[in-house]
Amino acid sequence: MTPSTNSTRRAKRTGPFPRALTCAESTPAYPADLPQPPLRVRDPGELIAALPAMLGFVPERSLVVAVLHEPGRGGTAAIEAVVRFDLDGVCDPGRIDQFTACVGSICVREQATGVLAIFVDDRTESGVPDALRDVALLDALGAAGIAVRGAWSAPAIVAGARFRSLFDRAGGGVVGDPAASLVALSHVLDGRQIRRSRSELTALVVPDRQLRAQVLTRLGPAVARYRGELSAALRAGNGVAFQRRSLEWVLWQIADTASGAPRGDRDLARLAATLRDRPIRDAMYGLALGDHAEAAEQLWAQLARATPGTDRAEAAALLGFSAYVRGDGPFAGVALTAAVEADADHPMAVLLETSLQSGLRPERLRKLAHCGRQIAADLGVDIGPIDL
Questions:
Q1: In the predicted model, is pLDDT for residue 65 greater than 70?
Q2: Is residue 202 part of a domain?
Q3: Are 230 and 165 members of one domain?
Q4: Is residue 291 part of a domain?
Q5: CB crowding 40-68: b at 16 or more within 10 Å, else e
Q6: Which Pfam families match (predicted)?
Q7: 361 CB contacts (<8 Å, ≥6 apart)?
Q8: What is the full DSSP assignment across 110-137?
Q9: Are residues 229 and 174 in the same domain?
Q10: Do 28 and 169 fall into the same domain?
Q11: N or C: which end of the chain has fewer CB within 10 A?
């Protein structure tokens, strides 16, 4: 089994059914000519240990499906995508067809030759999952024409946990150390995080009610002040200069956030007001592929927690886009869901979430980052090079 370095980089939530029913997070396929060599996983224990790195977090109570492509060198199959499902969701009898349709659509997209299935569930006595339930889900995949090449179950993905084969009663073994996985090492060297659970992702955009209340008391005056100053600058023929200074102020906020200092309610209110100016907002998308992407994400997350409605959607969309293009599909899904829930009519949030669900590859969105950089340049600000 050979998951390539590239195929573990970009996890994304996808599914052919409505957003409210979407239960999968997956990685897309990658062009064969990318330069990174594949990382080889020699046995199921290593594969299970590598799943947190492939997904970006440790899955719990999940069904993870590894989508296989044609055999590579040495006859080993390549893992082109890794798809995670909430186990309770797919076990619902009313969702079995949706589950198989979701896996089927991903298999078609990735030109799959089969799948591997890993059940992770800690809820039954002695940590052994419900075999009848698991086999029923595997049978549903088979009935849908999806070849299951191997299936295993484990109570948790931790070093030393016992896994067993669902196809061979005598089959089984011990899960390797997830932190020592070659896939995890690759991620760490790339500077990417592997979170302990999916709840760590959702916590990053959960509203801070106290901070939100403080920001809201300042938001109205901040919006009025910004609009007034912009109108005065436009009348005086200094609109571009005013927007350039405003953009530079936002960039300074991002640079200061990189030091670890959280923004106060006054700065967050002014930031929300400034991002209502479309050229400023659009320029921010140019940061997603540059050196300041991580600091910008920290600021967008703070703003998303501190504001409601369209302002929250604006910040969460910027956050989701940045996560999307750098390959963190699960986090992109969390952020974009928050954006759409905050403002169901937000054009960019809806577009990005639809793209994520439909499996659009991250590289297809790079043009938006280039456009943002050009908008900043038109205002006289160089926001730095874009990583190629």
A1: yes
A2: no
A3: no
A4: yes
A5: ebeebbbbbbbbbbbbbbbbbbbbbbbbb
A6: DUF4192
A7: 10, 28
A8: HT-SEEEEEEE---SGGG---HHHHHHH
A9: no
A10: yes
A11: C
Report the pLDDT value the prediction gives residue 7, as an integer from 0 to 100. 34
Cα–Cα distance measured from residue 172 to residue 203, given in angstroms and rounded to the nearest whole number: 35
Q: Are residues 144 and 24 in the same domain?
A: yes
Same domain, yes or no: 213 and 164: no
Scan for tokens 């046995």, then name that residue: 43
Is 150 within the bounds of a domain?
A: yes
Q: Answer whether residue 37 is part of any domain.
A: yes
- How far is residue 240's CA from residue 230's CA, in Å, rounded to a whole number? 9
DSSP for 264-318, please give it. PHHHHHHHHHHHTSHHHHHHHGGGGGSTTHHHHHHHHHHHHHH--HHHHHHHHHH
Q: Which of 192, 231, 201, 184 is nearest to 49 (CA)?
A: 184
The residue from 196, 217, 240 where one domain ends is: 196
Domain range holding 226?
209-378
Do 216 and 188 fall into the same domain?
Answer: no
Ramachandran bin of 127, using left for φ above 0, alpha for ψ from -120 to 50, beta for the remaining angles: left
**Which tokens in the block code for residue 344?**
């169901």
pLDDT score of 189 more than 50: no
Give the residue-averaged pLDDT of 115-120: 92
Structural domain count, the chain: 2
Residue 86, CA distances (Å) to 59, 62, 92, 198, 222 in order: 9, 5, 11, 11, 42
Mean per-residue pLDDT of the chain: 82
Name every residue whose Cβ is closer than 8 Å to that of residue 283 and which is 6 or more positions away in sequence. 247, 372, 373, 375, 376, 379, 381, 383
Burial 302-337 (b: 16+ CB within 10 A, else e): bbbbbbeebbbbbbbbbbbbbbbbbbbbbbbbbbbb
What band does 55 get if pLDDT is binned at 50, 70 and 90? confident
Phi, psi of 72 (to 5 degrees): -95, -150
Phi, psi of 275 (to 5 degrees): -70, -10
Residue pair 133/151 in contact (Cβ under 8 Å)? The answer is: no
Predicted confidence (pLDDT) at residue 225 exceeds the cutoff of 90:
yes
Does 167 share its domain with 100? yes
Residues 221 and 179 in one domain: no
